[in-house]
Amino acid sequence: MNQLDILRRDLAALEHGHLLRHRRNNALPCAPHARIDGRDMLAFCSNDYLGLAASPVLADALADGARRWGSGSGASHLVSGHYAVQEALEGRLAQFVGCERALYLSAGYMANSGIIPALVGRGDAVFADRLNHASLVDGMLLSRAEMNRYPHLDVDALARMLSGSGAKRKLIATDSVFSMDGDVAPLADLLALAEDHDAWLMVDDAHGFGVLGPQGRGAVAEAGLDSWRLLRVGTLGKAAGVSGAFVGGEADVIEWLMQKMRTYVFTTGTPPALAQALLASIDLIEHGDARRRHLDGLIARFSSQLELERWRLMPSRTPIQPVLVGDNEAVLKLAAALWNEGLWVPAIRPPTVPSGSARLRVSLTAAHTEDDVDLLAATLNRLERGT
Ligand SMILES: *Cc1c(COP(=O)(O)O)cnc(C)c1O
Questions:
Q1: Closest atom of ligand 1 to CA, residue 109
Q2: How far is the CA of 166 from the centre of ligand 1 (A)?
Q3: Which of 5, 263, 281, 374 could form a disulfide with 1 if both were Cys (CB 3.0 to 4.6 A apart)?
């Protein structure tokens, strides 16, 4: 077998194991109402928590930005691809989340995979929640530091690992809101451990920024924490409705990251027009209490209307509301039954989640209505009873 034959065999194995993934082609912009192959669907799958991704205000800001700045940046930020509008965005982000300085990056994946190797290396140690996002895992691997993965949310296990470590430099990395579970890391306890063990604490707030904390300032602001040890990563393609990411922290720490992060230094700067849209997005987030109130109402409504016996709504106060089914085939059948009724909810299976914990990942947004949520809950109740 040559290389291509091997690859084709492996692809066939994926298909055989029902592990081949397919993309749906949506004919409409990001919103609860989608159109797939000519069919109208009600979607509960996006991370557009505030319903901003198709906001006309942001589309106008993006178009204005493109007219003013063109489409490209021309070079990496440190060479000549850095523009006033991006500098303004970084200042606004730092002020908004409450830290000294922020660095704006092209994606959360680039942030997480770049920050860890910039801070730790061979002979150092990273401590990571076992359910952290893949981009944090890849950052650990790239760093070549020793990897210590602690059981999900288990602060005592983390404390033991930290005490037993002789590493010179230590970094604790965690999601704030876990993307397949919707639960929230104990950030205050983690920061206390970081202080005790002279470690960095890196918080990936991909699902908290815009949603949690006063005016949507994020999970760190909600917990009321501040420390030079804290690195706050926020992503800008979820609640913020655009694209990109940032890392916020103490000014010299951010200067170091700007000098050393390979995912920042060796990539072309993001199109400046995006920064103009993002400045408008931060304003919408800051003044978005009505959107967040509506979203919180939907979250409470969904859990109060579900009457499940075999399946179980996992405990979550965030827009990520997973329904635990357990069995892989059962969750696929359930997602297919929902799809047949015009409801689009993704089934999540191992290895994305631990085996035996296959689930539906319901995600709610401020663009959903109470009727949308009622329909989903009623359909789930009915499907569970098998009627
Ligand atoms: C989506 C996500 C990322 C990656 O962010 P992108 O901007 O989409 O690259 C990182 N961490 C978590 C927890 C995420 O959910």
A1: 9
A2: 31
A3: 5
Q: Which fold has domain 21-50+289-385?
A: Aspartate Aminotransferase, domain 1 (3.90.1150)
Structure tokens that stand for 195 in this block: 């202080």
Residue holding tokens 């050393």?
260
Pick one of 3.20.20.70, 3.40.190.10, 3.30.1490.20, 3.40.640.10 as the CATH number of 56-286.
Answer: 3.40.640.10
Segment 282-334, tens digit of pLDDT: 999 999 999 999 999 999 999 999 999 999 999 999 999 999 999 999 999 99
Within 218-354, where are the H helices? 219-223, 251-260, 262-265, 272-286, 289-305, 328-340
Q: How far apart are CA 233 and CA 209, in angstroms?
A: 9
* Radius of gyration for the chain, computed over Cα atoms and rounded to the nearest angstrom: 21
Q: Could you give the residue range(s) of every CATH 3.90.1150.10 domain in the chain?
A: 21-50+289-385
- Of 370, 368, 359, 367, nearest in space to 321 by CA: 359
C-alpha of 316 from chain center: 15
The reply to whether ligand 1 has any atom less than 6 angstroms from the CB of 234 is no
pLDDT in tens, 161-200: 999 999 999 999 999 999 999 999 999 999 999 999 999 9
